[in-house]
Amino acid sequence: MDKVAFITGGGSGIGFRIAEIFMRHGCYTVIASRSLPRVSMAARKLAAATGQRCLPLSLDVRSPLAITAAVEQALKEFGKIDILINCAAGNFLCPAGTLSSNAFKTVMDIDTLGTFNVSRILYEKFFRDHGGVIVNITATLGTRGQVLQVHAGSAKAAVDAMTRHLAVEWGPQNIRVNSLAPGLISGTEGFQRLGGLQAGLNAKVLASPLKRLGNKTEIAHSALFLASPLASYMTGAVLVVDGDPVEELVTQPGWWLRPGRARLASSSGEKRLQEEEGLTSG
């Protein structure tokens, strides 16, 4: 592939698997997260498994100064960046009626503003003059209502809108911008937090024509497609990879009130998000 991919949230979950799949296809990667020890360990694992170079960087997507420093370091190391994967995200469960403005803003700042920050700075530093590909990892939350997720759904919907606008504005500079919206994906931090009761998970599996959940490798392959020449005439699109569920149990109003429900996080979730430095990657 002979490309360089800059991946925010690349230290774990979907972002980590995207980095691995890209590297197995000959791509060098830069994986960025606020936790340098965590992302450094991830980079060592990726390099050992694939034989490709992986540069770990400390980065807060809410800080333009930190993003600028990281992008400049990546360009110094590799001389170019061909692909940007915006995978950094923050989320927790919380009823809308008890969601604080600060908690809502925190998720918007990470998911929406963070995506714009990294995209804009990479545009200024390299893409404007050389072209490139941006893949924004969003979610079906942006198009399908779900209890306890008004903050995340709003943030993801905004990113999908951003995708369309940037695709139009930056297309003349040979920059393609697309969104990739996964459904419920097993083996991710988001799945562990947001999956719900076992009975609910069983219902979701049955709701899919494929009768199973998705996995991280399938999302990584979808990202690889969007970043590759196979999608060279595709921009401003939202690629949904969710097994086409016919209904979502979690849209039922009583789901989160049932005994044994997933732990709510009106205050604890916000605190945990802050403790984890605001970033998850799926």
TrEMBL record:
Keyword DNA repair: no
Recorded catalytic activity of this chain's protein: (2E,4Z,7Z,10Z,13Z,16Z,19Z)-docosaheptaenoyl-CoA + NADPH + H(+) = (3E,7Z,10Z,13Z,16Z,19Z)-docosahexaenoyl-CoA + NADP(+); a (2E,4Z)-dienoyl-CoA + NADPH + H(+) = a 4,5-saturated-(3E)-enoyl-CoA + NADP(+); a (2E,4E)-dienoyl-CoA + NADPH + H(+) = a 4,5-saturated-(3E)-enoyl-CoA + NADP(+)
Subcellular location: Peroxisome
GO BP term (any one): fatty acid catabolic process
Primary location group: other
Record has Cell cycle as a keyword: no
Keywords tagged on the record: Fatty acid metabolism, Lipid metabolism, NADP, Oxidoreductase, Peroxisome
Function: Auxiliary enzyme of beta-oxidation. Participates in the degradation of unsaturated fatty enoyl-CoA esters having double bonds in both even- and odd-numbered positions in peroxisome. Catalyzes the NADP-dependent reduction of 2,4-dienoyl-CoA to yield trans-3-enoyl-CoA. Has activity towards short and medium chain 2,4-dienoyl-CoAs, but also towards 2,4,7,10,13,16,19-docosaheptaenoyl-CoA, suggesting that it does not constitute a rate limiting step in the peroxisomal degradation of docosahexaenoic acid.
UniProt family annotation: Belongs to the short-chain dehydrogenases/reductases (SDR) family. 2,4-dienoyl-CoA reductase subfamily.
PANTHER family: PEROXISOMAL 2,4-DIENOYL-COA REDUCTASE, PEROXISOMAL 2,4-DIENOYL-COA REDUCTASE [(3E)-ENOYL-COA-PRODUCING]
Protein name: Peroxisomal 2,4-dienoyl-CoA reductase [(3E)-enoyl-CoA-producing]
Organism: Camelus bactrianus (Bactrian camel)
